[in-house]
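Entry:
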Amino acid sequence: MNDISKADIKLPLAVAIGWGIGTVVPSIMFNITNVFLMRFMTDFLGIAAATAGAVFAASKIYDAVTDPVMGTISDKTRSPWGRQRPYLVLGAIVSGASLVALFAPPGWVQESNAAWYMLGALVLYSTGYTIFNVPYLAMPAEMTQNYHERSFLMSWRVTAINVAQVGGLIIAPIILVSAGGGRDGYTTVAWVMAGIVVAAGVLSFTMTAKAPFHEVPSGPSPSFKNQLGTVVDNKPFLQLIAIKFFMLLANSFSFGAYAYFVQRVLQQQDTTLSYMFATSTTASLLAIPIWLKVSKRIGKPHTLKLACSILALTAFSWLLADADDPLLLILLRPMGTGIAAAGMLLIGQSMLPDTIEYDRRRTGLERAGVFAGIYTTAEKFAYALGPALTGVFLGAMGYVSGTRGAAIEQPESAITAIYLTIGVAPGVCLMLAVGMLFFYKLDEEKLKATTLETSST
């Protein structure tokens, strides 16, 4: 029995680090697919930009159902390892296989059937992501009920995200260039990153062996339909979903446009991507303890507003960049991105278990998996919508696709589209998130004051 509900619990450092390591799995998947997959589809598989965007969008229809269902499954799972933890290994294995399917397609995949193949590969990708990430994100709500301890726990997730960026956004471009930059290069990247993903999942499972968890409540549980219906009563959760959606959509636009912007606008090789992400990663790691202190001083919602505002200004500044910019000037923007992203990830993620505890205090129900499932559905819609809209927009603006990765001369309209995708779209999304944060009222005092008797307030 490992059922613990004490609010003053202090997590063992090894458990916090082990849980944080788990985020390498979805982070590698997100980074690799959002930075490279759209360009791989258009420039190496010959898929038209608009079609590639439609493939991304179509694969997410599947996600609309699977994430909440996975949350219900994990909430009802009985095992010696808890409700959520057993899925870390299975999810990591399927996730690793999906990366190979996406970036190392078999020889029979040609321009004529590539779109259909990639749709199937993206469904596999979504399945692995769901199996791992829904139970993974449900774990913190069970591991501790301490308001600021969650921020400490999330600091290890942000650290692991930055480590994942080293692999997915710094090492991957170097491997890609070293392997010739063609389809063979993408195949090498896929196998290396898949190995890291599986290893991270297994290590996280092993290191969280002593993580507190809640047992499945005895007696009949509410139906899936009823649980979803009562979720709408959790106003802070719905607000957080909307806020996170626009934050993640902003990131999705940016990541989807980076590879195009570096090559087509800055006229740099993919190694410049490595320098940019190395700068962003370093700045993010250094900023984590600062954001922890800021959060304790001014509260989570105000801290998140500040981080979003910094990132919005950084995004808008890309409109001033061009091929004549020296490398030092180019790297100043990733520095601002890294600083802001650390705050957004740290605080935004720590607010999810707060809303789950708010639900538990109001209803007495244990359904962290359901909330995590709905959360990851919104997360993946944002991740998919960015590349989908990018592809459709680039296609509408005349972007020319290819099959060998050659630097095809693009019309001025396509270059303008790339500028708008990396600069304007993310900035607008982040300003919308800031506006919504003014209506988010769940702070530490309100959370502690919430009980079953005050559930109507």
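The chain is about 75% helix and 0% strand.
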